[in-house]
Design goal:
The protein has 275 residues and is mainly alpha-helical. Helix content is 57%, strand content 4%. Helix 2 packs across helix 10, helix 2 packs across helix 13 and helix 7 packs antiparallel against helix 8. The two termini are 29 Å apart. Bound molecules: zinc ion.
Length: 275
Amino acid sequence: MVSLRRTRTSKHVKVLVLSAVLISFISLPVAANAWGPIGHRVIGRIAKQHLSPKAKSRLNFYFGKNVALEELATWADEIQKQRPETAPWHHLRIAPSATSLDMERDCPEGNCITAKTRLFVGIARLALRRKSDLLEPVKFIVHFGGDLHQPLHFGHSQDQHGWDIPVELNGHSMSLGEVWNSAILELNDETEEEFSRRLIRSVTPELKREWSKGTLRDWSWETHLVAIRVAYGLLPTGSPKVLDEMYLERARGVIEEQLLKGGVRLAELLNRTWP
Ligand SMILES: [Zn+2]
């Protein structure tokens, strides 16, 4: 595990409180099925650093030179309202009793993120279709590479991956899903660019080698375990559950590591798509 904890300052605490007030007014439940846009853009920026020359050239072919992965990364969430059939593609709901991933049980009719990502990689890899028909599959891959690492996307079905669990953050009510999706990232006192640069610098060759191993199923189960052990596992009792500083610090560290993995593995997915 890479340590990404940062020293907190009193200034940071003030920003936390002020931001939480703001968040309680501006956070929108429509982002229920995704990392928020910040998470996806950060993952896109990290992934860009690890693309193979072949993957870069395919992306340039589809989306133009100097493609901004971070701009493509949020498209799949933006179209969810117009295309509600795509909503289940962003997550995988695992029963609390599960001890391993069972695609028949957890992903009926292939209608989940793990199966859809595999499907779109297959379509993009064959490249037998017209260029215009491949833009959407590639944009779905770019988005799902990020969502595959949002712990609560692999959470329990009965609580709508955390959106049915009321919590309190700095005196403000929200759902656990919202905390993991966007609230913690929005509390960051760095700019998005500073945050991305710091994360990009922390990917060592060893971490990259380690995180690039495995299959979509392995990554899905690993993300589920993070949800069980941290997102749910460290929750206080009571209702609403009041999140303390310890929970937030741990969640922040885990979220940063998941964003890093998401960036490295999104690049890996694209590199495997066009070997
Ligand atoms: Zn999503």
